[in-house]
Amino acid sequence: MMHRKLFILIVIPVLVGIASARTHMRAQAQASQSGLDLAALDKSADACSDFYQFACGGWLKSNPLPGDQPRYGRFDELQERNNAVLREILEAAAKSAANPDDRKIGDYYGSCMDEKAIDAKGLAPLREDLDRIAALKSAADLPALLAPLHAKGVGAFFVFGSIPDFKNASNVIAGVGSGGLGLPDRDYYFKDDETSKKLRDAYVKHVTKMFELAGDSSDKAAANAQTVMRIETALAKAMLDNVSRRTPTKVYHPMKMAELQNLTPAFDWNAYIKVQQPPAFETINVDHPDFYKAFNAEISTAPIADVRTYVRWHLLHASASLLPTPFVNEDFAFYGAMLQGAKEQRPRWKRCTDYTNQDLGEVVGKAYVAKTFGEEGKARTLEMVHAIEAALAKDIDEITWMSDATKKEARIKLKAVANKIGYPDRWRDYSALRIASGDALGNSQRANTFEFKRQLSKIGKPVDKTEWLMTPPTVNAYYNPLENNINFPAGILQPPFFGKSADDAVNLGAVGGVVGHELTHGFDDQGRQFDPQGNLRDWWAPQDGKAFEERAACVANQYGGYTAVADVKLNGKLTLGENVADNGGLRLAWMALQDTMAKKPLATIDGYTPEQRFFIGWAQMWCENKTDAFARLHAQTNVHSPGRYRTNGVVSNFPEFAKAFGCSATSPMVNQSACRVW
After folding, report:
1. Side by side, which strands form the sheet with 168-178?
2. Global pTM exceeds 0.70
């Protein structure tokens, strides 16, 4: 679909969880005075044997996986409520727009919902691009072909955009990022297990079917699919794996344009840049130089017909969600059903709500905030942030494995962390973006081009640290290491993560743990490599860096031993940053709870002590049901651990948990070699 990241932020903000807009209604929770979801509990389970089952067993039973979803969890449950609000906003705007912004989101949503009009147009909205691809005569013409396609969101071969300079994070430079794959990750092209082989076969069949829908004969479509697979496999072979990409120095290679040109003599970068028209620049970051050598080899040795086939596939792939129904269904058959295990397509209105939020997020978000988020929620969240920042300052003071010199640097970085709560201080201006009623795909392409040009315009300018990388209705949060700030959209600051009437123990265990999680990201295996200003700089004494790595290795080994699904273990190195943040974040929230109770003792409520409510509050964020296919995909590509291990993995490292629930030293929820970094 035409909803791809168009700019390059190679060290990405680290998300709290997977927040997808799914649909499933919760049963009414039992009455709770504390804010816990009492109906979510499974009191027949032993908290010391499987805390996740104890905290979530009731929820798992009462929330069987809906047919249109490969995964459904508490994040999705909240996103469901947010989507209902967004639907009201968008449907009202589609019927009667009160202002130009409302007209934009109304026309975008209404056009997306008009399946009959989309079906009637067939491939006509792609005709100009398809004709340009068909006219490609040689590699020399490829820059002029790819440039406008990249702007529209077609990810063939690579992506081009802007990124903060890792070594001077206050400035924005140009960047190119390796890309051009149709499977989720480069390892999918090489794994030899039977599941991976079946997925590759299914992918080739999917590409074949898409070419058939686009008008190719069966034989021609099958041959074209093999061509796509060959080119993508060659590109994948030259890419870094997802664990390596977590090391900033491996994706930071600033060059002069002449140096990049030397890597790809068959691709004229000046011709490409001339079409894109970014501000003048001298330096461009090249994420992985060896990839561009492979790219050059492909376009200089492959028959030009093969290059045309590959680019044509990526145009169809990027556009599928807003093409006629047979394309939408085939896209779902592979990416939704085969790859993730979903049994049916999501309702059209939910998909169109997603697309509108993605492409016009701050117009939608402005209306959402006006309906849902008050100053009270923002003020209470900020109060909690300050309490957890104080806990991290205390934690830095008290840890024994770090020298005083490095502690001093850590305190400086902590003090420099900026907090963004709820929504932007300044809303984005979309007045230059044309949205036309009845032009669903064109609206998406123009929205992508608008965002692409907006990102390019940043090159050579100071970084705008007030900008948000998530829309206000998003149920998630992130830390940005290149800006050293934490960001909490209004969408997540609602039950079960944050409740205005919930007691402090529950709120601190839930959203307090999220706040601590994001703060800890500034000091995890990736974030610790950036200084207070967001620059890639080693501010650690050598012995302290070694001590950190030893403790982080304990966490990587612990989570690497967990089973995601029968034939797949978690990748402890891929999930290391998130696991360090989970463990450290809950530790900080616990410290904040102790400070709170020292000032105002908390009573037993709903049959649970404040300490027990704290840990249950944490666990109940991560309740989730999912297909085996989704679990396998998640384990291979996602930097987060599954909910079960975000719960059990963390509490097993907490002696305070064992004390709160009276667990014996040999209980399964007591890690005999407990890991702790922060």
Report:
1. 158-165, 168-178, 283-286, 254-256
2. yes
